[in-house]
Specification:
CATH class: Alpha Beta
CATH architecture: Alpha-Beta Complex
Structural class: alpha+beta
Shape: globular
Radius of gyration: 19 Å
Number of helices: 4
Number of domains: 1
CATH topology: paralog of FGE (formylglycine-generating enzyme)
Helix content: 10-25%
Largest sheet: 4 strands, mixed
Length: about 350
């Protein structure tokens, strides 16, 4: 999604400087056999993907899911802060690039940082990155870089987290990340083949997305510019919040165009990084992210549909990607993978 050399470098540091943490106590059980804060998703057979939209979404493929649990909202800054306080974990964005791996870079160029979106000023031309830039010092505590803070955003979704950061938090909570098939089925809220999580007609008041001329000004007609507190909009049919917009969410699957590798399988998941491919950046294995974000608008992105998907490098933290947790119901078998 962001083919920057400095971003790719973070993948190296994530492998070399990974942080190990001890798991927390298991989450308390929900009366319906799900951990607290999670909804029971009944499973079933459905068609993942969509036809007639973007090429990476189709053709649709039939898959079957066992019952599972999914968090009702994205992990918040408050929750992630508790994890960091308990473990001392440092995210990928907080770790400098190693000098021995990048001897030609200056200390400043090896400094920790991440990708930040900043609206363009009027008349500024829209380049390939459309407002995105690498910002030294940007991390989950400082989502827009030095000078920004989460002090008044503790109940907003945590951002600037790479895939391994999301995995580390999930392991600490005794949970995991959802597969793409699980995420999409849950985001549909029990509906079949509908465009959005509530039906076929777009409703600006149902989700946190971008209104106005992108990438210049978000008019916040939906009530928010930037991230919104989790649960600010009505839940879907399964009681899940913010599966449309707010922030993109990591899934366990590696990205490949279409759903051929998942078709006609039970509890499918693409675990083979070697099978990952993104035509825009050949040779770079990426994970699937789902849900769209506060930056999606009809004129840009528009991937705020359950079937929509995007490819993201696992080392990349950005100011519009977060995650939510998944778990197995009590006494249920572990799902199969590819």
């Amino acid at each position: 999604m962001f083919p920057l050399a400095v971003v790719i470098g973070v993948l190296v540091v994530s492998m070399l400087l990974g942080t190990h943490v001890q798991p927390a106590q298991a989450l308390p059980a929900h009366p319906r056999s799900c951990p607290e804060g999670m909804a029971v998703i009944p499973g079933g057979t459905y068609r993942i993907g969509a036809g007639g939209q973007r090429p990476e979404e189709g053709p649709p493929a039939k898959v079957r899911l066992s019952p599972y649990c999914l968090a009702t909202h994205e992990v918040t800054n408050r929750q992630f802060a508790a994890f960091v306080d308990a473990t001392g974990y440092r995210t990928v964005a907080e770790r400098p690039l190693p000098a021995d791996q990048f001897p030609d870079l200056s200390d400043g160029e090896r400094a920790p940082g991440s990708l930040v979106f900043r609206p363009l000023v009027p008349e500024e031309p829209v380049g390939p990155m459309a407002g995105w830039q690498w910002v030294a010092g940007a991390d989950w505590r400082h989502p827009e870089g030095p000078g920004s803070s989460i002090d008044d955003r503790l109940d907003h979704p945590v951002v600037q987290v790479a895939y391994e950061d999301a995995e580390a938090y999930a392991a600490w909570r005794g949970a995991g990340l959802p597969s793409e098939a699980q995420w999409e089925f849950a985001a549909r809220g029990g509906l079949r083949d509908q465009v959005f999580g509530w039906g076929d007609t777009w409703d600006v008041n149902r989700a946190n997305t971008w209104q106005g001329p992108f990438p210049y000004r978000d008019s916040a007609d939906d009530g928010h510019a930037g991230t919104a507190p989790v649960g600010s909009y009505a839940p879907n049919g399964y009681g899940l919040y913010d599966t449309t917009g707010n922030v993109w969410e990591w899934t366990r699957d590696w990205f490949a165009p279409g759903h051929r590798l998942l078709a006609d399988r039970r509890d499918p998941r693409l675990d083979d990084a070697g099978a990952s491919s993104d035509p825009r950046e050949p040779g770079v294995a990426k994970h699937v992210i789902k849900g769209g974000s506060f930056l999606c608008s009809p004129s840009y992105c528009s991937r705020y549909r359950p079937a929509a998907r995007e490819a993201e490098s696992p080392d990349t933290g950005t100011s519009h990607i977060g995650f939510r947790l998944a778990a197995q119901p009590l006494n249920q078998p572990i799902t199969s993978s590819l």
